[in-house]
């Protein structure tokens, strides 16, 4: 949700969580591999932004089971 409204560099993301920069970086890479965040290099930093498109597919799949 943090990345839904704005693009942020990893340093700004790290400030919001009680974990190391390395740990946050690993989480962002997992989310990126899943297609849930997009990254873009700007100068010396990488900026991240949420990519909600893959969640629509999950929503459609889950909605089928709501009838049960």
Automatic annotation (TrEMBL):
Residues 1-68 form the HTH arsR-type domain. InterPro entries: ArsR-like_HTH, HTH_ArsR_DNA-bd_dom, HTH_MetalResp_TranReg, WH-like_DNA-bd_sf, WH_DNA-bd_sf. One of its GO terms (molecular function) is DNA-binding transcription factor activity. This is Helix-turn-helix transcriptional regulator. The keyword Zinc-finger does not apply. It comes from Alicyclobacillus mengziensis. CDD domains: HTH_ARSR. PROSITE patterns: HTH_ARSR_2 (PS50987). Keywords: DNA-binding, Transcription, Transcription regulation. It holds the Pfam family HTH_5.
